[in-house]
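User: I'm curious whether this sequence folds into something compact or stays loose and floppy. Could you predict its structure so I can see for myself?
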Amino acid sequence: MSLDPAFAPHRVGPPTLAGGPGLIGDLLSPGAMALGVAAADKRQALAVIAEIAARQFNLKVTALFDALMEREATSATGVGHGVAIPHAQMPGLDRVRGVFVRLRPPIAYGAIDDQPVDLLFALISPSECGSDHLRALARVARSLRSSEMRERLRQASTPDSVRALLTLDARPNAA
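Assistant: Here's the prediction. I'll summarize afterward.
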C-alpha cells in the first residue's frame, strides 16, 4: 500500500524518547484490531473490546468491561457518522493503548446522530495518565471526523492496512 503524500502522520499519546508525541497507529498493535466482528448490541461490542484489550495488554477483562460500561452510562461515546470512541482508565497500563473494531453489520449505539455504529476505536489509559488520555481522545476524534478516513477504514481488508490508515492525517498538508 503506498501512502498518499498529501497526508501527514497523526501525533498523539505518550512522549517518545526524543520528547515528541507518538503516532495514533502506535496505540494499536496488530492483535488489538478486529475486522468484521458481529455484535448484537453495544454491550456485546464493548465485551469484544474488553476481551481483546485484556488479552493484548494483560488486563482483567471484567474490570475493563465494567469501566467501559460505566463510562457509557455517564455519556454515550458514539460521536456520529457510524463512529464510537469508547474509553476508560485502568490501573496496570504503562501508556495509552487502543483497540480498533469494525462491526458487520453496524449496531444501534445511542450515537449523537442516532446512526448505527460500525467503527469503534477504544482508548484504554493508565489511571494516572493525566492529560495524555484527553489528547489521545481528541486526536482520534479529529481523525475519524474525516469522511474519507471513515470510508477507507470501512474498506480496509487487513489490520495492517487499518493501522497504516490510522497513522495518516485526514487533512492535507498546508505546505
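Summary: The mean pLDDT is 85. The CA atoms of residues 30 and 143 lie 19 Å apart.
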